[in-house]
Amino acid sequence: MTKKTAAANWLGLVRRRTAALIGAAFLASTLASPALAAPDPGKKACAQEARTLCPAEMKSMSRKKVEACMIAKVEKTSPQCKAAMYRIKAEREQARN
After folding, report:
1. Which residues lie below 8 Å from residue 46, measured CB to CB, with a gap of 6+?
2. pLDDT digits (tens, 9 = 90+) for 1-48
3. d(CA 56, CA 93)
């Protein structure tokens, strides 16, 4: 096999894998869209507060990390956010049992 053929094969493989990853990411984002997902009252009630109280966790883009931070700081949140965080905390504890 020549160097050009090997490089072309490798480039083709990289392109196919990249296309597959992009397709999978698009599919995952489509399935997780608000139109298909269940409404999340915690997200709506606490979004601004999460940016203020848990900026590092918000930057990590990890929903579980943000929720854990917000649950830890629940006493500093608004009544609507506090209710949503207590609901999320109860759901997590129920899932563990």
Report:
1. 70, 77, 78, 80, 81, 84, 85
2. 566 677 677 667 667 777 555 655 555 555 454 445 556 666 777 888
3. 24
Q: Which residue type, as a one-letter code, is found at position 90?
A: A
Q: Which 8-state DSSP code applies to residue 22?
A: H
**All residues at 6 or more sequence positions from 60 whose CB lies less than 8 Å from its CB, including other chains:** 66
d(CA 97, CA 92): 9
Q: Looking only at Cα atoms, what is the longest distance across the chain? A: 69
14 vs 3, 26, 90, CA distance in Å? 16, 18, 45
Q: Which of 8-12, 64-68, 82-86 is predicted with the least confidence, judged by mean pLDDT?
A: 8-12
